[in-house]
Amino acid sequence: MYEKRLFFIQLFAVQVFYCTLSKQNMGVNKKLNNRE
């Protein structure tokens, strides 16, 4: 049970990490597009 909870916490952390990463990438892409 404890291991399963740890797994879900890791899964949630990874989702949040990728979400913030994709948002940062979108911001970078917008800056690059504005330069062109």
Q: Span from first to last CA?
A: 53 Å
Give me the Rg, rounded. 16 Å
**Element order: H for helix, E for strand:** H
| Spatial shape | rod-shaped
What share of residues is helical? over 70%
Briefly note the structural class of the backbone: mainly alpha
Mean pLDDT: 86
Give a quick account of the main beta sheet: strands, pairing sense, barrel closure.
none
Strand content: under 5%
Which regions are unreliable across 5 or more consecutive residues at pLDDT < 50? none
Structure notes:
The protein is mainly alpha-helical and about 35 residues long. It is built from 1 helix and no strands. The chain has one helix spanning about 1-35. The radius of gyration is 16 Å and the shape is rod-shaped. The N and C termini lie far apart (about 55 Å).
Q: Top keywords for this entry?
A:
mainly alpha, 36 residues, 1 helix, 94% helix
Summarize the model shown:
With 36 residues, this protein is mainly alpha-helical.
SSE layout and pairing:
Blueprint: H1 2-35
